[in-house]
């Protein structure tokens, strides 16, 4: 009986750790960055010389998150500095967008105040009004 309980607790611990790793918002934000942003902005956020802006030196992360949320969702027709287009990303849901924005702000501006999905939803409603 003791062995059964011990094995059960061990399996429960493994499941718990596995689940907590999968639901880590920072980790999901990093994964979303790798999938959606890294091919242009590079693994370390350095960008590509004068073609793609560096995220490391961007003041965008230090401002309110609304600009970043709208920028990711709707993209840019032409970047004023580089003349390059940034594609829109309509595939991300509100949770994914919040996790990506939180990752970017923490990674490149050391901002640890999290943006909520409710804030993302409100920002996106305002973005639509401005279009």
From TrEMBL:
Alphabetically ordered keywords of this record: Heme, Iron, Metal-binding, Signal
InterPro entries, alphabetized: Cyt_c-like_dom (IPR009056), Cyt_c-like_dom_sf (IPR036909), Cytochrome_c-type_DH (IPR051459)
Organism, as annotated: Candidatus Opimibacter skivensis
GO terms for MF: electron transfer activity; heme binding; metal ion binding
Name by which UniProt lists this protein: Cytochrome c
Signal peptide, first to last residue: 1-23
Protein's UniProt keywords contain Amino-acid biosynthesis: no
PANTHER family: BLL4482 PROTEIN (PTHR35008:SF4), BLL4482 PROTEIN-RELATED (PTHR35008)
Domain Cytochrome c, residue spans: 24-108
């Amino acid at each position: 009986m003791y062995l059964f309980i011990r094995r059960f607790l061990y399996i429960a611990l493994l499941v718990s750790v596995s689940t907590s790793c999968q639901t880590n918002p920072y980790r999901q934000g990093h994964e979303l960055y790798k999938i959606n942003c890294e091919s242009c902005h590079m693994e370390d956020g350095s960008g590509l010389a004068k073609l793609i802006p560096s995220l490391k030196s961007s003041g965008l992360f230090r401002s309110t998150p609304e600009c970043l949320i709208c920028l990711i969702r709707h993209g840019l027709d032409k970047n004023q500095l580089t003349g390059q287009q940034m594609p829109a990303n309509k595939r991300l849901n509100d949770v994914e967008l919040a996790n990506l924005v939180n990752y970017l702000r923490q990674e490149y501006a050391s901002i640890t105040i999290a943006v909520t999905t409710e804030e993302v939803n409100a920002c996106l409603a305002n973005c639509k009004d401005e279009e």
